[in-house]
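U., I forgot to send this yesterday:
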Amino acid sequence: MNKGKNLLIIFYRNPELGKVKSRLAVTIGEERALAIYLLMSAHARTTALAIPADKVVYYSRFIDSEDNWLNDDFQKRLQHGDDLGEKMKNAFDESLKSGYESVCIIGTDCLELTKDILKDAFESLKHQDAVIGPAADGGYYLLGMNRMIPELFGNKKWSTSTVCEDTIEDLKLLQRSYHLLAVLHDVDNESDLPPHLR
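Result:
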């Protein structure tokens, strides 16, 4: 039973040595990359808990029922699909079909994400079909919608600098209204880290 009308999806890669933040690990090593990934995940978790919405964690490989994503606070599901686009599309589809009116998805790569930005995202979906949080590298750190728009998940070169631009172009072609959030920085490489973590 849904507690609210809003759902925040967090896409989460199971934290295993050598399998997270591979671009970061090239320069700082796998152990430090894993430690930073766990730190970023904790930031996403804390930020998510600060907003009045239901939350669900979508795990990459297996559902961990005894980790720091407490079962009382987070629903837990498994990502499924051939690529990131299909996995996100399936997660949105499941969530909207289960009765939520507004659904947003984030990852765990953005240390600049705040509760106010998340609140702004859900607020904008009261008036717009979609909301996008552009990342400085050309991707996006958040995508939200209040109805399924499957076209946003096809014909994309995921993890490239054109993803956000291509998504906005899709929305324009489909004549769907959208709101853009502030541009934030994802952490992919060592140069993306804030000074105290370098």
